[in-house]
């Protein structure tokens, strides 16, 4: 087997493989690369020593059986016998479901999560979006401090378990998207700096030195990240990648890294003969992220839209702190703007940022499905002091309103695990750092962050306490009981309606018509021959739909069709979808 590693600053490199040591030779065709041949097969342990130093794991390791600090292991991907023929599933008409493997079940494994896929198929979602799977120290964590960007966290089950999960998902007709982190690596178990200039002091990010995308040596760093992305899509038959915080990818080169990545992914999709998607998390408010490359954009296929979330959240909760401030002044007006124009901040002043922010969406060339709409995500729940979901403070009726706006609105919908039944389990920030100093730093940092917002130290869950993760695991006794069953049935009904009515997947933002009453707290919009009405208020609302030849297609509470005056009388904290005759 041929082993190779990029180590441009090393004077000598040795390969430690199956207990034997051999010198590696410089590759005459590729500057900075070293190669060696050795007897090895699936599972063989190996690592590299630079200039006589300790044996380190392979930067391109496909498996870390003993965690990020241990030796790497060979993975022969072709040994896995795929059971499900799969032509792929694009995100054009998708309903996504964000899932964290470590808390989706108490077992916290990919195999245990696969056992729950029937629930998602019955729900009607089309894609599972897995939160990051790369190895990180310890057993439990969110995954955003991963290292070894080509490997699967061993406590989740490792590479074979991911293949079994994808196979099982495809058998249910579900696509699989994986959240990957290119903007930083975790602080523990990251050996990339020993091998080469993977990071640069030219730019800084909230996590420290930036990943080197534009300084000397960045050609190989970009190839490393793109190679990792393509490996996930090819070797594990994934249907797409969610790219974490692309606004933190500091790149001044003429061809931005995201453009290079999207080019490579589109090329792979052509080679494989199935659709592949890149979904960005971007705080730029810039539609060029999802504009095709041929039109001068970066070519991602979709992006998360936090502006929709913020408008919906303030309408539901009345919260106005932090980045919610501008949305909370007139939340229904903010909701109307995002649902018809994509972004709320499209060049307007952002109080939170202290400056103008964003750029207008060209509705003539940017379809609505390029934006993901959601009421809850791992970030928007987990980054709250106590990880409380909307269900902790809202009635089932308001949860139904949130689902209605998410699932019948113009954007590609996404749900966060458990949202579909109004789960009451929190989703808190938890870690399992094996380095005591790092663990204490994270604990203190979390408490200090929220103390600045008036929280008492004892009210902030300890990230390192195993009970914090335990509290965050879904309670699977809930979905079929009490109001949870009703909320779940409502989600299923809305997703089924979305699939059945083409108007609900019309990508034309300019065609969405909105009306609202900020004081009466009702909001209504039209999509083709369908009208959707939501009453955020506790009191009944008279919603003028302007049509007296309509029938109720779905309603949270029993309602009569609009009368001769075209008015829908909607109970408090409820919603309805009406078909126009």
UniProtKB/TrEMBL annotation:
Keyword Hydrolase on entry: yes
Q: Which SMART domains did the record assign?
A: Aamy
Q: Where does substrate bind?
A: 242-247, 306-310, 378-383
For the region Disordered, give the residue spans.
Answer: 47-70
Instruction: Please give the Gene Ontology molecular function terms for this protein.
Output: 4-alpha-D-(1->4)-alpha-D-glucanotrehalose trehalohydrolase activity
GO BP annotation list: trehalose biosynthetic process
Location of the protein in the cell: Cytoplasm
Q: In which pathway does it act?
A: Glycan biosynthesis; trehalose biosynthesis
* Name this protein carries in UniProt: Malto-oligosyltrehalose trehalohydrolase
Q: Which GO terms describe its cellular component?
A: cytoplasm
Gene3D superfamilies, alphabetized = E-set domains of sugar-utilizing enzymes, Glycosidases, Immunoglobulins
The answer, when asked if Cell division is one of the entry's keywords, is no
Residues of the signal peptide? none
The similarity comment for this entry is: Belongs to the glycosyl hydrolase 13 family.
Q: Where is this site: Transition state stabilizer?
A: 379
The protein's organism comes out as Streptomyces alboniger
**Catalytic activities:** hydrolysis of (1->4)-alpha-D-glucosidic linkage in 4-alpha-D-[(1->4)-alpha-D-glucanosyl]n trehalose to yield trehalose and (1->4)-alpha-D-glucan
- What keywords are annotated for this sequence in UniProt? Carbohydrate metabolism, Cytoplasm, Glycosidase, Hydrolase
UniProt xrefs under Pfam families: Alpha-amylase, DUF3459
């Amino acid at each position: 087997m041929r082993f190779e590693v990029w180590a441009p600053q090393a004077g000598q490199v040795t390969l430690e493989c199956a207990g034997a040591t051999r010198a590696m030779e410089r590759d005459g065709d590729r500057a900075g690369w070293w190669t060696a041949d050795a007897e090895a097969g699936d599972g063989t342990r190996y690592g590299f020593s630079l200039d006589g130093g300790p044996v380190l794991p392979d930067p391109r390791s496909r498996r870390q059986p003993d965690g990020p600090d241990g030796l790497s292991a060979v993975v022969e991907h072709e040994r896995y016998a795929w059971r499900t023929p799969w032509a792929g599933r694009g995100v054009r008409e998708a309903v996504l479901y964000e899932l964290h493997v470590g808390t989706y079940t108490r077992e916290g494994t990919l195999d245990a999560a696969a056992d729950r896929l029937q629930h998602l198929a019955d729900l009607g979602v089309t894609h599972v979006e897995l939160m990051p799977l790369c190895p990180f120290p310890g057993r439990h964590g969110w995954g955003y401090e991963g290292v070894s960007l080509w490997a699967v966290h061993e406590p989740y089950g490792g590479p074979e378990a991911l293949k079994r999960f994808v196979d099982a998902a495809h058998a249910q007709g579900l696509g699989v998207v994986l959240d990957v982190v290119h903007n930083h690596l975790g602080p523990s178990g990251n050996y990339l700096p020993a091998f080469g200039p993977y990071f640069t002091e030219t730019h800084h990010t909230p996590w420290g030195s930036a990943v080197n995308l534009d300084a000397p040596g960045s050609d190989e760093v970009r190839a490393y990240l793109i190679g990792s992305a393509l490996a996930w899509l090819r070797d594990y038959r994934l249907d797409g990648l969610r790219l974490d915080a692309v606004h933190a990818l500091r790149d001044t080169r003429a061809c931005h890294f995201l453009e290079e990545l999207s080019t490579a992914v589109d090329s792979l999709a052509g080679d494989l003969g199935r659709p592949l998607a890149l979904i960005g998390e971007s705080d730029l408010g810039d539609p060029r992220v999802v504009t095709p490359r041929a039109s001068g954009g970066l070519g991602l296929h979709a992006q998360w839209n936090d502006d929709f979330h913020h408008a919906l959240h303030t309408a539901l909760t009345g919260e106005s702190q932090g980045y919610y401030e501008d949305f909370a002044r007139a939340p229904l007006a903010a909701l109307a703007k995002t649902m018809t124009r994509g972004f709320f901040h499209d060049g307007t002043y952002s109080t939170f940022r202290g400056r103008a922010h964003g750029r207008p969406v060209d509705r003539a060339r940017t379809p609505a499905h390029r934006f993901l709409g959601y009421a809850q995500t791992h970030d928007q729940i987990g980054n709250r002091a106590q990880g409380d979901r909307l269900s902790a403070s809202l009635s089932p009726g308001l949860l139904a309103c949130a689902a209605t706006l998410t699932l019948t609105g113009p954007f590609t919908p996404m749900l966060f695990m458990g949202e579909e039944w109004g789960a009451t389990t929190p989703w808190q920030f938890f870690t399992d750092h094996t380095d005591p100093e790092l663990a204490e730093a994270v604990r203190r940092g979390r408490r200090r962050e929220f103390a600045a917002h008036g929280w008492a130290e004892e009210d902030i869950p300890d990230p390192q306490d195993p009970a914090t993760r335990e509290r965050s695991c879904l309670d699977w006794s809930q979905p079929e009981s009490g109001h949870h069953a009703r909320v779940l049935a409502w989600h299923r009904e809305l997703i089924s309606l979305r699939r059945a009515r083409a108007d609900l997947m019309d990508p034309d933002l300019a065609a969405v018509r909105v009306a609202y009453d900020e004081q009466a707290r009702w909001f209504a919009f039209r999509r083709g021959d369908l009208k959707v009405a939501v009453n955020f208020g506790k009191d009944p609302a008279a919603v003028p739909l302007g049509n007296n030849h309509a029938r109720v297609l779905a309603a949270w509470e029993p309602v009569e069709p609009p009368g001769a005056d075209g008015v829908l009388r909607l109970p408090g904290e409820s919603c309805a979808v009406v078909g126009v005759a």
